Amino acid sequence: MNSLSVRALLVRGMLAGLVAGGLALVVAYFLGESQVDAAIALEEAHSHDHGGGEELVSRTMQATGGLATGVLVFGVAAGGIAALVFCYALGRIGAFGPRATAALVAGAALLTVYVVPFLKYPANPPAVGNPDTIGRRTTLFFLMVALSVLLAVAAVIIGKRLAPRLGNWNASIAAVAGFVVLIGLAYAFLPSFDEVGKDVPATLLWEFRLSTLAVQATLWSTFGIVFGHLTERLLTPATRAAAPHTAGAMS
Amino acid sequence: MAQSAVPATEASGITPISAKPLAPWAVFFGILMLVLLYFVGAEQGATALISGEGVHEWVHDGRHLLGFPCH
């Protein structure tokens, strides 16, 4: 396989990311927007205005065009990166075909890029968060993402090394256990933030956080399924004997 | 991770894509995608390459609902 298939995989990853972003956008709009609105209403009731004076972008635009831009660009970019990871992982992480590898990459991405950082630094709706700490919160959030991704990569490598000695099952358990212990230590030692005001309803916060989780779960599961389907068709010629017109993509 | 379950000999019949042709793609597109993620997730929050609030305000809802720290 040469760079042509890398290009073909990258294009498919970005397309799958776009589709995944589209579905995540639907979830974000119907599940999350009402909580964002409620939080902004709360914020404005306390005349703590955001952005200072004039509204630069109307709420309607933020909730439609702006939201779509954010989620779709995120989908395409995340899909592209996941496709590059897939290119390297395929045939290296074990006896998994393209579809299973795509599903594993998507699952690992959801877990390491979102769920693990989220458990330490959960998403907050507009009314929550002290603007003075945005710098530290942003740094620590991305640090947690980077740490989680690096430790997951290390766990995969160590699991692979241990496999001949311990067997696949036990090596996987050992690798995952190591990952969990190190992430636990990071949780314990990194500073936490509690900036939720007394007037923020607990249900609003809970529902908003669940919505963000639903958005990410939708995005990554859709990506895994769509990208898996596309790569299986691209890389496993036997399964598409009935569709010879795509044969040119393989080289 | 669970996918580290690997037989010592790769019997899947799948040839891994060698790192050499992959590297330029990974570097170029990896960086490009990270820049896109930066603009969606963090520009005009803690750090700003473009002055003003336009980018932040435009992707505001997406940023919150994708779970990034926003303000």
UniProtKB/TrEMBL annotation, chain A:
Transmembrane segments: 9-31, 67-90, 102-119, 139-159, 171-190, 210-230
Keywords (A to Z) from UniProt: Membrane, Transmembrane, Transmembrane helix
InterPro entries tied to this protein: CbtA_put
Protein name: CbtA family protein
Gene source species: Streptomyces sindenensis
